[in-house]
Design a protein that fits this description.
- This protein is of the alpha/beta class and 325 residues long.
- It has one domain: Purple Acid Phosphatase, chain A, domain 2 (4-Layer Sandwich), CATH 3.60.21.
- 18% of the residues lie in helices and 23% in strands.
- The protein contains six helices and 14 strands.
- The strands form two sheets. The chain has an eight-stranded mixed beta sheet, covered by helices on one side. A six-stranded mixed beta sheet has the order 7-8-9-10-12-11, with no helix packed on it.
- It is globular.
- The termini are far apart.
């Protein structure tokens, strides 16, 4: 069953897993998640630090650091203070590159969802339709332009961005923020290190994803950015090299984690990539919980997440560490 025939599952789910210090081992299901915070975690931010060991021929990329942020879902439900905090956290790290995993907007059409959603951002309270969408994109991408990195900001589109004026999302992202990769590859030259081949695909559900080809250059560091982990499993076989780092979002880590029941659904079929750092079939994939909310206007036992990824020489294990701020 292909993606366009797939009946999408609701996002009424949670996460049950990643410890404060853990190592990825080729799990058969998503890395579990355990937060030090319990109850409603809508406005609580955690930093997740991921160390990726480099093979000997890529050790020149030692100490390269990326920030990965996904599923911001900016809109009326997004408290602007959250973005300010995230900006301060990212800018303090002085990262080399910032990567964005899509789903920049949440503008629900349902009258019921609108009625139960707290209007945390007064900027969008009275706006509707195209005016609302344009205002959300503009405000977010102007804010993201204040995020600092040495080599720039790169992103992909998610399903919500493709539902709501995808061309406008691309135009405003390029105008204010950085480079939006829609089935494109950007080769980033790093001083004293070499080249990163960064490929980004269009959204798997709504877009027309056609992953760009990577080169055969063994001395370049390869990163693949795709919003939905199912895309990697179902349409990228033989296209994405096994030594590439893959970064995804979409799942929200479940968004709601119920006591005892835990995760109900990650809203994907490839459960092994539901959350966290997972090494499956030799693919190294990190799926982030992201920042925002959809449908249910809150997070429960599943805090917001900003991911910092550091590549390390002489490392033997993939190490993940979560820190609440």
């Amino acid at each position: 069953m292909k993606r366009r025939d797939f009946l999408k599952l609701g996002l009424f789910s949670g996460a049950t897993g990643l410890g404060l210090l853990s190592v990825a081992n080729s799990p058969s299901k998503a890395t579990p998640y355990i937060s030090s915070s319990s109850g409603f975690t809508t406005g609580i931010l955690e930093i997740t630090e991921v160390s990726i060991p480099l093979p000997e021929h890529l050790e020149r990329f030692d100490n390269l650091q990326l920030a990965f942020i996904t599923d911001i879902h900016h809109g009326a439900a997004m408290d602007p203070k959250w973005l300010t905090t995230i900006k301060e956290v990212v800018n303090a790290r002085k990262v080399d590159i910032i990567l964005l995993g899509g789903d920049y907007i949440w503008a629900p059409d349902s009258a019921l969802i609108q009625a139960i959603t707290p209007r945390r951002n007064s900027l969008f309270r009275e706006l509707k339709g195209e005016e609302l969408v344009a205002s959300i994109y503009t405000d977010l991408f102007q804010t993201l332009a204040e995020f600092q990195s040495r080599y720039g900001i790169f992103g992909v589109r998610g399903n919500h961005d493709c539902w709501h004026s995808p061309q406008q999302a691309s135009l405003l992202f390029h105008k204010y923020t950085g480079e939006l990769l829609v089935n494109q590859r950007s080769d980033i030259m790093l001083d004293g290190m070499g080249t990163i081949e960064l490929a980004g695909a269009d959204d798997y559900w709504i877009g027309m994803p056609q992953p760009p080809k990577f080169s055969d250059n063994k001395n370049s560091l390869k990163i693949f950015l795709t919003h939905n982990p199912d895309h990697l499993v179902e349409e990228c076989e033989g296209t994405i090299p096994k030594d590439a780092l893959v970064l995804c979002g979409h799942t929200h880590g479940g968004q709601v984690s119920l006591p005892t029941l835990g995760v109900l659904t990650y809203n994907i079929r490839s459960k092994e990539y539901g959350y966290g750092l997972n090494i499956v079939d030799n693919f190294t994939v990190f799926t982030s919980r992201g920042i925002g909310v959809v449908e249910l206007p809150f997070r429960y036992n599943c805090p917001q997440e900003v991911v910092f990824i550091k590549f390390v020489a002489n490392g033997s294990k993939h190490v993940v560490r979560a820190l609440e701020i």
